[in-house]
Amino acid sequence: MGSNMKDLLKQILKGPRTALRRYYLTEQRASLFDEIFMRQDYYWLVKNAKPGTTVLDLGANLGDTAVYFTMFDKIKKVIAYEPVPMAYELAKNFIKQNPFRRKILLYNKAVDSKRGKKIISESRPVDFGFSYNSSKDKSGAYVESITLNDALKGLKKVVIKCDIEGAESTIFNNTDLSRVNAIELEYHDNLKAVLDGLNDKGFEIIVSDASKKQGMLYAIRS
């Protein structure tokens, strides 16, 4: 048995939950690196950004997308929101290692349909993504929630990356998107609600595969 496997077994015996989370984190980091930096799944958003653009990174997770966006000169800054405390801390540490870290503002807040407090779960393994809506999880942490209008306040040239585990179904309702040029969004069995929120707001919308419960939506100002 290799030394790495022995170390992993020792960690599991000493603290199963912590050890498994570390393992899942390693697996997810590798997956994210491939999706974001190798395949460049968010290059569409960069391509449709204007010089001097601010990226709103909704659902920053481990900070990989925020770091990716800073690599492009046309991106002036990235304002990232990650509601899950554990993911926020991991993202903060990762961003510290980025040479363009001064372009990133990271907040431990949820972007939701209304202001207040929201219970955020950390009970799911990180390789499946942190759970956003966790009203049944009494062990969740209370995190401040703001509206998308709050997040957009004072910004001029904006593109939005959105992966917030279901909350995307309501955040665009009653929101002024006139300063937003493009949106790249992952929907979660709520495509109709997302489209309803974007209706009559000046976007041409492309959906990767409307027959699927989960997929990507691209909206660009027409």
Relevant terms:
Rossmann fold, seven-stranded mixed beta sheet, three-stranded mixed beta sheet, alpha/beta
How would you characterize this protein structure?
With 222 residues, the chain is of the alpha/beta class. It has a single domain (40-221), classed as 3-Layer(aba) Sandwich (Rossmann fold). It has helices at 3-14, 16-38, 43-47, 64-70, 85-96, 148-152, 191-198; strands at 53-58, 75-81, 104-107, 110-112, 116-120, 141-147, 158-162, 180-188, 203-207, 214-221. A seven-stranded mixed sheet has the order 3-2-1-7-8-10-9, with helices on both faces. A three-stranded mixed sheet has the order 4-6-5. Strand 9 and strand 10 form a beta hairpin. Helix 1 packs across helix 2 (16-38). The longest helix has 23 residues, at 16-38. It is globular.
Largest sheet: spatial strand order: 3-2-1-7-8-10-9
Number of helices: 7
In total, how many domains does the architecture comprise? 1
CATH fold-level assignment = Rossmann fold
Regarding CATH, which class?
Alpha Beta
Give the oligomeric state: single chain
The coarse silhouette is: globular
Cα distance spanning the termini: 59 Å
Summing up helix and strand content along with how strands pair, one would put the structural category as alpha/beta
Main sheet characteristics: 7 strands, mixed
Roughly what percent helix?
25-40%
In terms of DSSP E residues, the strand content is 25-35%
Task: Tell me what the CATH architecture is.
Answer: 3-Layer(aba) Sandwich
Q: What's the total number of strands?
A: 10
